[in-house]
Amino acid sequence: MTLVMGAVAYDPKVVTIWAGFRAWFARQGFDFDFVLYSNYERQVDDLAAGRIDAAWNSPLAWIRARRLAGGRLEPLVMRDTDQDLTSVIVVREDSPYKDVADLKGETVGTGAVDSPQATLIPSALLRERGLRPGEEVAVRRFDVGVGLHGDHIGGERDAARAMMSGDVAAACMIDADHLLFVREGTLPPGGTRVIGRTRPYDHCTMTAARATPETDRFRDLLLSMDAADPDVRTLFDLEGLTAWRPARTSGYALLERAVDDEGFYDPAGAVTAPGYRP
Amino acid sequence: MTDPVLDLDDLGFETGAHLLVQRALGDLAPGARLGVRGRDPLLDPHLRAWCRPRGHTIVPAGGPVLAWIVPGGADRWSRAERAGDPGGVAAKAPAHWGLAARGALVEPGGPEPAFDLADRDLVWAEIAPALYAHAASAQWDPATAIPWDAEFALPPDIERAVVQIMTYLVENEQAALVVPARLLARVHPHFREVAQLLAVQAADEARHVEVFARRAALTGGPLGTSAAGGRESLTTLLTEPDFSLASFLLSVLGEGTFLNLLAFLDRHAPDPVTRRAVRLARQDEARHVAFGVAHLRHRSETDPHLRSRLRAAVERRHDALAASAGLNQDVFDALILLAAGEWSPQAIRRGHAAVLDLRREMDEGRRRRLVHLGFPDDEAAALSALHTRNFM
């Protein structure tokens, strides 16, 4: 029977990636297909309802899926690059801010409303440091690609630009994107400082609706993919990994907490975030 | 063994630290890990962000060492191969070498562009690198190499004859530009000297088109005629898909014949602009002929059936053109007038004889080249006689 996996079409390359994976699975004699979603909430609804066998989930999607479906879900794999990420709060080098607490009364730029790395987790850091978003500190969201759970980095980039132009005092982004923005010229080398950094957290995860012999085989095949194989490597380069790792669920505590603090989802998995229209 | 420690001082990943880290990782002994220390405030997040997509693991360290890098990730070069030897050409160039430089280390998994001329013997000649070097050094600037400002005044009929011949030359050179340009796009880049040579050949023809068109328009009169038969003859050149046959028909027979025509025009040119233009064009054409002949010699050494295919190509083209008029009568008459230099019956007789001599010289040149390619004398004579009456 065909294993059907959901993926969110945050970029045209998603078609290239999963069509390539499908061809690779076919060569291994495994019957795999994928369906594309325009946003993670719809994908999670279908995963929880068992309409798809597996889903390539954002961390936020994993949290909601788990709340909706409880213990039925089976985490399968994640990318090696999904583990131990950090987000940073960045200010201009010439700004007076030395610490997160210095942002009191200022405006902080974040990514899209549903971005774990550029909005939800950094907001939790602000809160931890006594700055409640909307109270002690104003937040200006850059809502690009809402529903894509931050996969579209346009919001992060816009926040970085706004920080450089002085529209906001600080900008939130994932560590790798800070380096990327310097390399691509959005931020000047040496022109920014990091005044806050989150604890490490995990990112995307492949989730099965329930464990079956097919999902076991799917997991084992993914784990067997070798980046030294040219057919695999080009797909890995696009998907941004060097190896699949067994999924772990220990890296989502920061985001769980942020989701609760923001009231983004309720404990049963209903979408409760104000103004969130994926 | 102590693991090495790299001190980045105050250099950060925003300003090139990855180069030093990469270099140190490359020098690492198998099983070793690399310590990193430094004073850039962003070193930790950036080091992690840099290592993550490369599959390297970061282990926190103590003391002055910020972290240990445990190298990981697949070696994307483990299945790489050299795209042949920089000093020589391979018998066959695989599609996956693609656009890589000859001798480059080629990462697998790249595109496989469709260069269908990927077999050395289908395109190569040992003389190609030397001919290319010569061609590159012999390029001339149409703006300065020809005395466009030279003062001369020709009788109107002679000027019209020159313009008619230039009009004819332009259409021939346009065909001679398109043929190598089309072949060039099909040659596997591994055989780069052939591609370079064809590129210069096309550029040569581009200049010829320019100078002949400019000479035709120099005195402001209308251009000459373009006969259907002439264009039909040239069009058959464009449709030959086989590299060697196209090279044979265009370079050996067509441009070879043109060498005689351009020498004739040099001899009888009534003005310095025409003389200089045809002389420069002839130098270039001689190179094109030399490559065509050398390539076919190379090919005939490996393909015993080549000569019969060359013969068939000439016969096929002759049959295709059997019903066409061949050389534009206006061109033929213009050549006579040019050689005559004036309208007296004696001069015209002299001009007519000169054009017949030209045809004889053309025939002899073709036969000589055909014999050089291994055709017996009688067969060379028969094939030369089947060559298009349009010269090209």
UniProtKB/TrEMBL annotation, chain B:
Molecular function (Gene Ontology), one example: oxidoreductase activity
User: Which segment of the chain is annotated as a signal peptide?
Assistant: none
List, alphabetically, the InterPro entries matched.
Ferritin-like_SF (IPR009078), RNR-like (IPR012348)
Source domain of life: Bacteria
CDD domains (alphabetical): Ferritin_like
In Swiss-Prot or TrEMBL terms, this protein is called Ferritin-like domain-containing protein
Species: Actinomadura physcomitrii
